[in-house]
Amino acid sequence: MAGDKRSVLFLCTGNSCRSHMAEGWLRHLAGDEMESLSAGADPAGYVHPLAIEVMKEVGVDISSHTSKSIQDFIPNPPNVIVSVCDSAAENCPIFPGAVNKVAWPFDDPAHAEGTDEEKLNFFRRVRDEIKDKITSGMDDLRG
């Protein structure tokens, strides 16, 4: 990936919510120390508007993110792949070389039901859980 900088790719099925929130959090928390990426096993083709909204609430802009396929990263694999859902962990392709794989499954906010406020609260909860996990797992990502 980017020279000597350690690269971390967050993987989920659709690459529309959790992986983008994780990518944004790592970029925000680690700064230039690591390259933060995201992809999907079966990309949805968009970033969920509520994911963008709840990240904006905490000062993290993911509005320019795009939905990408894990296949795009096979020729130049990251150092670490963090699966943020069980399905993505099961469908992650085999990468050449030494790629560290970590599983940090989170509930999928894209499936949130209820009022608009209940959906936002679901996204906020997952956003905060992702931040907490990245903060506590930073050593795992650094390798």
| CATH level 1 name | Alpha Beta
Ends apart, CA distance between termini:
15 Å
Strand order of the largest sheet: 2-1-3-4
Number of continuous helical runs: 5
Q: Write out the CATH superfamily name.
A: Response regulator
In one word, what is the shape?
globular
Largest sheet: 4 strands, parallel
The arrangement of helices and strands along the chain is EHEHEHEHH
CATH domain topology:
Rossmann fold
Q: Average pLDDT, to the nearest integer?
A: 90
Low-confidence stretches: none
Helix content: 25-40%
Number of strands: 4
Radius of gyration: 14 Å
Structural class: alpha/beta
What is the gist of this entry?
With 143 residues, the protein is an alpha/beta fold. The protein has five helices and four strands. Helix 1 crosses helix 4 and helix 2 packs across helix 4.
Structure, explained:
Helices cover 37% and strands 15% of the residues. The chain has 5 helices and 4 strands. The chain has a 4-stranded parallel beta sheet.
Write the layout of secondary structure elements.
Blueprint: E1 6-12, H1 18-30, E2 34-40, H2 49-57, E3 80-83, H3 86-90, E4 100-103, H4 116-136, H5 138-142
Parallel strand pairs: 1-2, 1-3, 3-4
Helix pairs in contact: 1-4, 2-4
Keywords:
143 residues; alpha/beta; four-stranded parallel β-sheet; globular
